[in-house]
Structure formats: C-alpha cells, structure tokens
Amino acid sequence: MNASLAPDSIPHTADTAAMRAELKTAKAQLIETFLAKGHVETLTHGLARHVDRVLASAWASCALPATAALVAVGGYGRGELAPYSDIDILVLLDTAPDEETERRVERFIGMGWDLGLDVGSSVRTVEQCLDEAANDVTVRTSLLESRRITGDDATYARFAAQFREALDPRAFFTAKLLEMRQRHAKYQDSPYSLEPNCKESPGGLRDLQLIIWITRAAEFGNSWSELEARGLITEREARELARNEGFLKRLRTHLHVLAGRRQDILVFDLQTALAERLGFKAKPTKRVSEQMMRHYYWAAKAVTQLATILLQNIEAQLFPSTSKITRVFSEHFVEKQGMIEIVSDDVFVREPNTILEPFLLYEQTPGIKGLSARTLRALYNAREKMDVHWRRDPVNRKLFMQIIKQPAGITHAMRLLNQTSVLGRYLLNFRRIVGQMQHDLYHVYTVDQHILMVLRNIRRFLVPEHAHEYPFCSQLSADFERPWVLYVAALFHDIAKGRGGDHSTLGMADARRFCRDHDIDEEDTELVVWLVQHHLTMSQIAQKQDMSDPEVIKRFASLVRNERRLTALYLLTVADIRGTSPKVWNAWKGKLLEDLYRITLRVLGGAKPDAHAALKTRQEEALTLLRLEAQPEGAHLALWKQLDVAYFLRQDASEIAWQTRELMRHVETPTPIVRARPAAISNSLQVLVYVKDRPDLFASICSYFDHSGLSVLDAQINTTRHGYALDNFLIEHSDPELHARDIANLVERQLADALSQHDAALPEPSKGRLSRLSRTFPATPRVDLRADERGQYYILSVSANDRPGLLYSIARVLAQHRIGLHAARINTLGERVEDVFLLHGSALNDGKLQIKLETELLKAIAV
Fold first, then answer.
1. Is the pTM of this model over 0.90?
2. Residue 599 CA neighbour count, 13 Å, CB half
3. Higher pLDDT pick, 180 / 194
4. What CATH fold (topology level) applies to the domain 16-167?
5. How far is CA 257 from CA 8, 36, 263, 273, in A?
6. For residue 736, what pLDDT is reported?
7. Which of 178, 304, 617, 792 has the CB geometry, 3.0–4.6 Å to 203, for a possible disulfide?
8. What integer pLDDT is reported at residue 6 of this predicted model?
9. What architecture is the 668-861 domain classified under in CATH?
C-alpha cells in the first residue's frame, strides 16, 4: 500500500467555490510549468497533492465518522494524476453506515463533483472491500494501489493488513495475464494501429502498470530498479523500461493537455500538434506526425518485448515447479514452461547461424507458446551479429527458406520474427517499413503490420478450420502447388512503400534479389516478381472496368497468361484487400473478383471471351433457385428479355432470383418498386429500386438516402432495354445502434413515395462533415470524363474523400444538366470513394459542356 501524501494537519475550509478556484489555478500553473520544462512527475504528483488537499478539506467539512477513512485507489492511489484523469476514491467505513452517515457521505461525494473533480466513488466497509476484491480482479487491482488521504488510520491499517493477507499472488498473476490477453485481443494483438490507444493497446502504459501490479502483489518490488535488484531484469532492461515508460507518460500527458479532456487515443487530428509539442521536426520526406508515430511504435514494440521477458521471469519465480526442462531439442535449445530456451546465454554470439533456429523450432513443435525470456534477451544481445555477413550466409538463407516453407506456423513465426526485430535485420528493406504509417485513407495498419496481415490471410486460406470464411479461396489454395510462393509475394508486395516512386516497381527489384539470393528457381521467381508488380491490377479491373466487355477480359487474360498466375493473383488480391481494413472488404467486392477469375479462367482454357457463356451459367443457377421456390415455369421471361449481359454478370444467382421474384409480375409497372433486405455485410441493407427511367432518377434516389442519414457503400445501376432503371444499393445507417431490419420497411415505403413525385425539386445536399481521418489526410478530388472506346457512352471517373451527401452531390449535378445514367459502379474504399459512371446524352458531345460539367463536379465533391 502507498503512504499518505497529505498530512492530517491540512487546514480545512468549507468554501467550495474558493477550493474549486484554488484547484483550477494550481492545475493551470502545473500545466504551464510542465509545458515549459516537460517534467511529467512534477505535474502528475502535483495534481494528486492538490486534489488530496481539497478532498481532505471537504472531508473535514462533512464531519464523517471518526472511524471512517478516505482512500485513494487506482492511478490516483499511486499518487499520479494525468491532467484529465478521473479521481477514484473509496470511503472506507469501520461498520455499516447509518442514515446520518449515508447522508454525510452523499454530501461529501457531491462536494467532490462541485469542486470540478471527475469522481469515481465507492463506499464500503472493510469486510465488503475484502469480499469484492475476492470476487473481482479489477477491484483487487484498484485496492492494491490504495493510499489513505485522510481519516482514521487504524481502520485503513486494518483493511491494508487483511487485504494483504488475503491476496494470492499466483491467482492474481493468472487473472491479470488473462485480462491482458483479452485487452490485447480488442486491439488485434497489435500496437500498430494508425490510431493506437497509448494506454490500453499492446505495448502501452497499461502493460507496464500490469507488471508493477503483479510484482507488488508478489512483493517482488514496486519499481524497475527494485525488479533489477531482485534479478528479474538486467540493468539495461530496467533502463529501457524506464525510458519507454517516460516517453509514453509524456505522450499521454501532452495528449490530455492538447485535447483539453481525457484522451488516450492518438487520433489523427492531434498527431501533428502532439509531435510538435514533443519536439519532433518535419523532414522533407516525412511529416512530423510520422516521425512521432514511428517513435511510438518502436517504443510499444520494446515494451512488448521487455514485458514478455519480465512476465516469464515473474512466472518462473511464482511457479518454480513448472520451470524445469521438459524436452531437449538439440545441443543449443530445450523446452521450459512451454517455451524454447537456449542452453547457453552466449550461443547466438558464438554461433550466429543458430539465430533463426528457434523460429523454425517454433513452427515445427506443436504446443510451444513462444521464446523464453532468456532466449529473447540473448537475441537482443546478439543484434550486432546480424550483419551483412550473417544475411549472406548460405546456412541462414537455407534456414529462412525452411521457415517460409513450413506447412504450419508461418503466421506466428513471422510475427515473432518481427517482434524480436530479427525479420528487419534479415530483410533490411522490411526494417525500413516497420512502424511506417500509410495515409491512403483505407489502410488502418502500418506497412509492416499490413504485410503480416496479408500473409496471415493467405495462410488462413490453407487452414481447414477457416474454410468457411472464403470457401472459394480455400478450394483454390488446396490445389495450389508450393503455396510458400504466395508468402514470399506477400512479404514483398508493399515493402517499397515510402521510398518515392511506384512501390510495385521498386518492390519487384527487392523480390527478384531475394529470390536470386535464396536459390528460388526461375519459374517461381518470375511468379513472385510478377505478383509484386501486378498486385493491384486485378482489383482495379474488377472494380473499375466493365467485365461484360470481351476486350477487357481478353487483355487481362493475356496479362496473366496461365491458370497458376491467375489463381496466385486472385488469392493475393483477396488477402491484400482483407488486410487493409475491416471496412474495405464486402461481399459485393468479393463477387466481382470471383467473377473476373472465372471468366478469365474460361478464356485461358481456350474459350473465347464470351459473356453469353457466363450469362447462361448464371441464369441456370438462378432458375434452379426459382424452381425450388415453386415459381411458375417461364414467369421470369418477360423480365429477363429486357436485361442485358452486364446485369447478369454483375449479380450472383441468389440476387438474380430474389430480384426476379420481386419484379417478374411488374415488368411494365407505372409505380416505383422498392424492396429492401438485410445484406451479408454487418448491419447494412440491400435496396432494390425498379422504376421508369428519367434523367433525375439517380439524383432523387441519392437525395432520399442523403436526407435519411443513409450512406451508400456500393451501388450497381442498370438500365433495361425498355427504359426502366433496375438499381441495387448497399446502404448503411449513420446510427450503428439501429439495425438494418428496423429500417427495411421504412425505406421501402418512403423511397417509393419519394420516387412517385416526378416534379419534386431536388433539395440542396446535406453538409456532411468529413471524418477525422479524411480531414487530417485529405485526398485530392479528381474528375475525369471521356468517351468510351466505341463512342457509345461517356465514362465519368470520380475520386474523393468520402463524406455524407457526396454521391447525391454528384448525382444532382448530372441531373441538372439532364445527363442520363446508363450504369454506375460505386466503390467505398475506407475513407475514400472511387466511383465510375457510364453516362449518355447528346449534350456530352459539346466540349464546352464537358469542361463545365467537370468544373461543377469538382466543386461539388470538394470539401
């Protein structure tokens, strides 16, 4: 338990307003001193002392029982307060309170709020504290850091003694470890989010606090120097822990001051100002925020490594009976506590060729949890041995290829290689992208973390337990020879980001050099290099070009040349998109890629790029579904004869069957038909619109979505042969609490009513705000309008930051110029949109109108 900071002799006053003003002035002075001198402890300890003083005064004015004590718990109990942290207090009673005591306690807590303090309070007897602590590890942790502020010392001493007696260090260690794993899982077990939580994310302050909680409970020590004295860490490790803790505390404190509130997430809005306050300077090739974040990622990585070492050493002391050798792997490595441990501390220094061996063992040995603290420490001490000679050694190159080629464990091995910095020392260009941010509005991870996510996704295609996620990818992977080739391509596909120039072209050179150095045969080398060069091509064709055009398919088929390259590119593309952000991938994008794969495969097999073959297959599948629903034979013909090839290629069989069932009796309807159903994507809605086409139709639909708070994630616009619009929208409500099912009926009724009003004027678009990410990293709006190769339509391409009302703003401009929309493909890529519209209208042949249209569109999509 911590000693009291505030003596009982503090002068007391009941003047709440005066105390509040005093506290506010003291806080402002402490923050001013902190900004001038940068001493975090002076600020955090000073704030705690001032809060102690005013709470002690309030306590005295409320005349609480003589046997009661006011106790600080949690972070406040440590005597530390970040500028906008909450104040956790415990009113500790000797016996259960009577009505008068309850009234006085309520008055005291109310005074705390009146003082402007964000008070988190609990009122318990000693016995209640012990019961709560026994049942809840969070309460146990909070009480572990308790500190008496004022009140009865004997009551607090009784509580402290009984709490310490009841505390089981082993059970506490186990509970806190499980709690940490759950917390890390919330952050995808990675500190490399582009907006990490500097307190809660892996490698954050909470990890360091957790260690001190455990060692305090076990009475091993309360500081890094005490843990060093006990032999749990080395002098260097204690120094590094203190340095990184200091940086994280400084970062968090500045973040609070800058935000003017409790703020632990390093949001984009504040990163630049925060970096400047921390003294980082901009460079010609790197923003000041990028430099700060890279420093943060390296600090979080170091904390993760050092925390792993410490926790293993603590576990060995708490559970000595499990710390014996359970298996001998070789003369250099054994298993202890489920970890790979070195036999000699200097083995990596003496024999650098053994550095990669534990990672290979990790893959090959089921049940192994990782590398022991002793092994991790030895790897760090051998870092100078990982030089150019080590990288060029044939033995190490062979070992690295063995790691890549293992049938299992590649994901965990590569993550471990990265966490220990061995991967960056083996592949120097990989080291350059560790902690490198990406400002393309749809990646949510640093470059190195994205690469490892892509590699993980490819591996999951090969694991039977994950076959339900992407069955088609799993099917293709099962028949793919030498899947390790895909791992190599994944490692290099983005490795050249941030160097300037085309990262695909630069990455090719890195990939070719790697393949040559590692004796990869010519066929596989060419595949790896080609995949790195074209890793963006398939998604661009699927999302931006018309796959019903035989020429598009013919060109793509000539590029891929054979089925192996096509399959490899498809698998890498799916894994890549899935590794950018959970928001970017959806079922519609998956269908576009799969359709492109299947059509191209038929062409590679000798078939002509005949869209009618795909049409027939899709139609047969849809008819089978309709027959299962007992639909009358031939009832679909009236609708289908009005639909072109492109419609059938853009929909899968289940969607065609659904739309046919809803529309086949209304082919010539004068009344708008609107149908909605929950989509495959979480909490989104698929909306079908069927109505006689008119120039302002698309704008009218988008207007309804805009003013109803509905965001369009994807859209497929079709025009039938007899002049009807058959449009599909994937929408999402701005309120995440509102389920898609709740709004389906509302959308059907309201949108149909809106489309019935032919002469209604188009309202102004809503002034939707950009997201924080888009405001911080604005994309340059781009508009491109040009005739297609046949001169039949004009293709309008639009790229901009996404925001509410954007699609309607575009549609409104087109409607005002009476420009017809034949088809469209709406792509929402994280915080950016890339939309393609197929337009018709004789006015488009006028060059002056084209310029005017592009100018107005640029103005409409600009912020």
1. no
2. 33
3. 180
4. Beta Polymerase; domain 2 (3.30.460)
5. 31, 13, 9, 11
6. 65
7. 304
8. 42
9. 3-Layer(aba) Sandwich (3.40)
